Amino acid sequence: MKLVIxxxxxxxxxxxxxxxxxxxxxxxxxxxPEPVPVYYLANYKQREAAAEIFKQAETxxxxxxxxxxCMPGIVKEFFxxxxxxxxxxxxxxxxxxxxxxxxxxxxxxLERYLKKLVLRLNCEYLGTMIKGGVEGIQSMPPSMTRKxxxxxxxxxxxxxxxxxxxxxxxxxxRKPYRFSRTYIVIFTLLSKTGITNxxxxxxxxxxxxxxxxxxxxYLD
Amino acid sequence: MNMKITILNxxxxxxxxxxxxxIGNLAxxxxxxxxVDVFPLHKMNLHYCSGCWSCWWxxxxxxxxxxxxxxxxxxxxxxxxxxxxxxxxxxxxSSALKKTTDRLIVLLHPYIKLKNGESHHRKRYDxxxxxxxxxxxxxxxxxxxxQIVNTIYDRFALNFHNERKYTRFIEFTNADEIIYEITxxxxxx
Lengths: 220, 189
Description:
The complex is a heterodimer of chains A (220) and B (189). Chain A is an alpha/beta fold and 220 residues long.
C-alpha cells in the first residue's frame, strides 16, 4: 500500500491537521516503516503538483479543518483539479475532518459530499473520520493531548494493517453529534457569568484589542 | 422600495460563460429599481482565509489580508439580499465562491452561543442578509448533488444567522423569476 497524505489546512505546517497527521504516522510507521509523503495544499507549488500526485497514489488520505461547516476553499480548488478524470477503482481515498466545535453535526453535509465526490472519481471510499473539539491543542500541555494523540496513533496502526479507519475510535470521535440538554443548561448558566468567553477575552486582552471586541468596521 | 443586492459571482471562466452572461443580464434588470454590487470573484485578487483569527482577536471585525476583499465584506453586510452564484464543479460551488464565503467569518464575533444544541459564533452585526443560490449545472448533476449543496448552504446559514431562500438553476429559471423572488422574499432592514 503506497500511502500519500494531503494536508488541506490553510495554516500549513502550523496546523492542528499537521499535529494530528504526525501522531497518525507515528502509529502507522510502527507497522509500515516506509516514509509517507505529506503534501501541503497551502503551499502553492505543492498545490500545483497535487493533482498529479493524487493520480499516481494507491491510497490517499486527506486531512483538513472544517471551514463554515464545509471544506476550506483551498481544498475545494484541489477537488476541482482532480475532478473530470476517472481513476482506477483500486485507488482508495479516506478523509479526516477536524474542527474546533465539538459537535459532529457541523460536518454532516460535508460528509455526504465527500462520499459522493470519491464515487464521482470512481475510487474506493474509505470513509470520513470526523473529530471535533480540536482547536487549541497546539497550546495545550502534553497531559491534555495525551489521550487524543494516543488515539490518533492507534488509528495509524490500524490503518497500516487494515487500510481503513478503526471503527471504535471513529464512532467515539463523532460524539457528541449535538450537545445534550444537560450540557446546554450548564453552558447557558455559565455563559451568564461570562466564563464561556474567558478564552477569547484572554486572547483579546493579550493583543490589546479587548476594548474594540464589538467593533463593526464594515457598517455603512 | 429600493433594495441593496450583492451578487457574488463564482464563475471560474473568463467571464463569457452562460452564467456570467446570465448574471450580467440579471444585474442590469435589477439596477432599474435597486442598488446592485456584482463581484466577479475569479478575476479579483482574493486570498484564501488562513485561519489566523486576527479578525477575532487582534483587529476585531477586520481582516488582516491585504487584497480586494474589503469591498465584498462591506457590500455583504450592508445588503438586503445576497446571491451566491456559481457553476457546480466537482459537485459543489466553485473554489472562488468557497474561498470568499470562508472569508466572511470576519463578519462574526468569536464568542460562542448555543442554538439547537449546536455551537455557533455570535453576531457581530445586527443584520445578516438572506441569500439565494443561483447555480449552473455540470455534467452529471443529479438530485443528490443538489440536496448536498442545499444542506451545506443551510449549515452556512445557521452559522451566519441568515436563511437560504431558494436554489435556482440558470438552465431552468429566467431572470424575471429571480427578481420576483428577491423582492418577494426579503425583509428590508
